Amino acid sequence: MTAQRINPSILSADFVNLQAELEAIRSADLVHVDVMDNHFVPNLTMGPPIVERIQAVSPVPLDVHLMIADADRWAPGYAELGAYSVTFHAEAAADPVALARKLRSIGARAGIALKPGTAADDYLELLPEFDQVLVMTVEPGFGGQSFMADMMPKLRQFAEARSKLGIDVWLQVDGGITVDTIGIAAEAGADTFVAGSAVYGGVPEDRIAELRTAAAGHSH
Ligand code: DX5
Ligand code: ZN
């Protein structure tokens, strides 16, 4: 069975009680940190000073998702502050391969994210340059939206390319992941699941356990 990871998104956490909210997801694999800049997406969250504090206190390593313009300029800073993985958007980077190499050289896992409207084709051959691919299953910007099942063919394209190349790149999904949709994504080849409202909408530890169980039946 392929390893599966549950990465709760703190976008749905209580931002004035972040330390407790981070403690509440100790059983998670990574904590997903959504950075938004009001340019790449129509929402604004946090920047390096807050992410640095999260990095300092979180018992779980950081999976930073950058929904920001000019990723080439800003992404390395998140690797430098110690994030375990840094994922930038393909649509926001002038040179995704150079940026991924830079992130890896700093010591972070390098991830590339694709908005729903961005096709996989240009990135399939580039897979060895990345440690993870994030297939967005909502339009980035907000938590609590509905899962786009029509992204599953894109996920399958990446899963097929991964097995053809024989590499261990993680396939992540983000947006609308619940106990009802996680199996659909796992079936299509995802192994890393971001969930915001589904985790923080209840008792986080219980929700994480329920998501693990729901995903496990569909592992590749
Ligand atoms: C959306 C963010 C997601 C968000 C997911 O743009 O990238 O990480 O927190 O929230 P849910 O799980 O509620 O769809
Ligand atoms: Zn995200």
Summary tags:
220 residues, alpha/beta, TIM Barrel, 8-stranded parallel beta sheet, 9 helices, binds D-xylitol-5-phosphate, binds zinc ion, Ribul_P_3_epim, carbohydrate metabolism
Shape: globular
Assign the CATH topology: TIM Barrel
What ions, cofactors and ligands are bound? D-xylitol-5-phosphate, zinc ion
Report the span from N to C terminus. 6 Å
Strand content range: 15-25%
> Order of SSEs, N→C?
EHEHEHEHEHEHEHEHH
Work out the oligomeric state of the chains in this entry. Answer: single chain
Number of helical segments with 4 or more residues: 9
Give the C-level CATH assignment: Alpha Beta
Nutshell version of this structure?
By secondary structure, the protein is of the alpha/beta class.
Descriptive account of the structure:
Keywords: Carbohydrate metabolism, Cobalt, Isomerase, Manganese, Metal-binding, Zinc. Pathway: Carbohydrate degradation. This protein is of the alpha/beta class and 220 residues long. It has a single domain, classed as TIM Barrel, CATH 3.20.20. It is 35% helix and 19% strand. It has helices at residues 18-23, 48-57, 71-80, 96-106, 121-124, 152-165, 182-187, 197-200, 204-216; strands spanning 5-8, 31-36, 62-67, 85-89, 109-114, 132-136, 170-174, 192-195. Strands 1-8-7-6-5-4-3-2 form an 8-stranded parallel beta sheet.
